[in-house]
Write a structure and sequence with these properties.
six-stranded mixed β-sheet, about 450 residues, about 40% helix
Length: about 450
C-alpha cells in the first residue's frame, strides 16, 4: 500500500518503518507517554466525533464530514489505513470549504517532531501516526474533528481522547479475531471501549443481536445518552429517495452519492451523530451532504485510467476495499441491486491478505459471479498467494483462476468476454489491493 518515496513525509515514514514495528501492540501506555512529552495535544482538539466499528467506519466518517462541511464548518478528518499515500490519513479543515489532504511539508514536520519526542523508545508506527494526528489537529484551527479508530477501540491509540462530542459504533462483525476475540460479543466489547461516561453514543445498524446487546449495555452502564438505529432513528429508500426519521420528524433526501443500500444506514447514523454532537442538521444541509459525500475505494466506480483501458469496452468497473465476511455480504448485495437495474455478467478480481477470512468473504458471491480471478497484492508481505486464494474460492463454492496481476486479470476478462454483453467487474478483497489499483490506474485520491 505504501507509495514510492516522492516527498519529505514519505522519507520520514520510511525511516520510522525501519526503526519501529508496523503491526499493532494494543496498549495506551506508550501513546500517553509520548503525548505528555509533546504537551498533550490530544487535550487541545476541537470537538471530536469518534468513530469505531468493524464495517462502515470510513463511510460514517465521510458522511459526518459532508454534513458538517455543508454547514460551512471546517472539519479535520483522520482515517486509516490510506490507499495510496500516507497523507490521505489526514484531511485538514478549511473554513467554508472542502478540507484538503495535509500539505507534505506540514506532515513531514509533525512526523519529525513526534519521532524526536519519542526518543527512540519502543512504539508502533501507528501510534506515531496517531500522535501526528493530534499535533496537526490541535495546531491547525478547525470547528470539528472526525477521528476514525484504527483497530478495536478500547486500546486503540486514538482512544486517549477523553471527552468526545459523540461516539459512533458502526456495524460489528468478525474481523481481527487475533486481537479482538473470536465472537462478535467480544469484538463489540472492544469497540465499546471508546464510550466515555456521560458522552452521547450513536449505535449504527447491527446485524447481530449479541453485539447490539453488549453495546447498549455498556452505554447504559456509563450513563451515555444513547440512540440506536431502527429503535430511535432509521432511514429507508422510498421511490428512489432516502427517507430519514427520528424523534424530530422526517427528512426526504436524495439517495447518497455513495452507491449501495448499506449507505442508507451509514448516512442515517451520521445524521444522528452530528445532531447528537450539537450541530443541527437541516433538510437543506442533509441534501447537500448526500450529493457531495465521497469515499475513495469503497464501491468506487472507475471510468478511466490505465487499468480501465485493459477491460472489455463498455465494462462497468467497481473497486471496493472491503475484506471481511460482513463486507462481502454488503458488496454482494450491491452487485445484486445493480444487476436488478441493468443485467451484466459479474466478474470478480480478488486479492486478500493472510489475516482475513477469504472463504467467508467469497461465499457471499456464490451464484452471482460468472468469472473469478485471484491476484497478488503488490508491496505487501502478508498478501495471499493467488493460487492459495483460488483454492479458498473453490472451498467457498466458486471456481477461480489465479493471475499474476490485476492487469492480467482484466486482459483475461477482455479475451473471454469481448463481443458479448460488457461485464460488471468488481475488484476487491483488500484496501491494500484498492490502493494498488488506484495507483496503477492513475486515479490517486485527492
Amino acid at each position: 500500500m505504501t507509495a514510492p518515496i516522492v516527498s519529505l513525509a514519505d522519507a520520514e515514514i520510511e525511516k520510522l518503518m525501519g526503526l519501529h514495528p508496523k503491526g499493532y501492540d494494543l496498549s495506551l501506555d506508550r501513546i500517553r507517554r509520548l503525548l505528555e512529552v509533546l504537551g498533550n495535544p490530544h487535550m487541545k482538539l476541537p470537538p471530536v466525533i469518534h468513530v469505531a466499528g468493524t464495517n462502515g467506519k470510513g463511510s460514517a466518517t465521510a458522511f459526518c464530514r459532508a454534513l458538517l462541511e455543508a454547514q460551512g464548518l471546517s472539519v479535520h478528518v483522520h482515517t486509516s489505513p490510506h490507499l495510496v499515500r500516507w497523507h490521505e490519513r489526514y484531511r485538514i479543515g478549511v473554513k467554508g470549504g472542502r478540507g484538503q489532504i495535509v500539505d507534505d511539508a506540514l506532515f513531514a514536520d509533525a512526523l519529525r517532531r513526534v519521532a524526536e519526542a519519542n526518543g527512540g523508545k519502543p512504539i508502533t508506527v501507528f501510534e506515531i501516526l496517531t500522535a501526528v494526528t493530534f499535533i496537526l489537529f490541535s495546531e491547525q484551527p478547525a470547528d470539528v474533528a472526525v477521528i476514525e479508530v484504527g483497530l478495536g477501540g478500547r486500546f486503540d491509540a486514538t482512544n486517549v481522547v477523553e471527552n468526545p462530542a459523540v461516539s459512533i459504533i458502526q456495524p460489528i462483525s468478525l474481523d481481527h479475531q487475533a486481537y479482538l476475540g473470536d465472537r462478535v460479543e467480544l469484538i463489540a466489547a472492544e469497540k465499546a471501549g471508546i464510550m466515555k461516561r456521560g458522552v452521547p453514543v450513536v449505535i449504527g445498524h447491527q446485524e447481530f443481536d449479541g453485539a447490539k446487546d453488549v453495546l447498549i449495555g455498556t452505554a447504559e452502564r456509563l450513563g451515555c445518552p444513547l440512540t440506536v438505529f431502527a429503535q430511535d432513528f432509521l432511514a429507508y429508500e422510498e421511490f428512489g429517495r432516502l427517507v430519514y426519521q427520528d424523534e424530530l420528524g422526517l427528512m426526504d433526501l436524495p439517495l447518497p452519492r455513495l452507491p449501495g443500500r448499506h449507505q442508507i444506514g451509514n448516512a442515517a447514523t451520521a445524521i444522528r451523530a452530528v445532531k447528537a454532537a450539537g450541530y443541527p442538521v437541516t433538510e437543506e444541509v442533509a441534501e447537500k451532504a448526500m450529493l457531495s459525500v465521497e469515499w475513495p475505494g469503497r464501491l468506487q466506480r472507475l471510468t478511466e485510467g490505465r487499468l480501465v483501458e485493459r477491460a472489455p469496452s463498455g465494462s462497468e468497473i467497481w473497486l471496493d476495499g472491503g475484506h471481511n465476511p460482513g463486507a462481502g455480504e454488503v458488496i454482494a448485495e450491491a452487485m445484486v441491486s445493480m444487476e436488478e437495474r441493468q443485467a451484466r455478467p459479474l466478474c470478480l478480481v480478488i486479492g486478500m491478505i493472510n489475516t482475513k477470512d477469504p472463504i467467508g468473504y467469497l461465499r457471499a458471491f456464490v451464484d452471482i459471479a460468472h468469472n473469478v480471478y485471484t491476484v497478488p497484492i503488490l508491496g505487501s508481505d502478508v498478501g495471499l498467494d493467488p493460487v492459495a486464494l483460488a483454492q479458498s474460492a473453490a472451498e467457498a463454492g466458486l471456481k477461480a483462476l489465479p493471475m499474476s496481476s490485476v492487469g492480467e486479470a482484466l486482459d483475461a476478462i477482455r479475451q473471454k468476454m469481448e463481443g458479448s454483453v460488457p461485464p460488471r467487474i468488481m475488484i476487491g478483497g483488500s484496501l491494500y489491493l484498492a490502493g494498488n489499483v488506484l495507483a496503477e490506474n492513475g486515479t490517486v485520491p485527492a
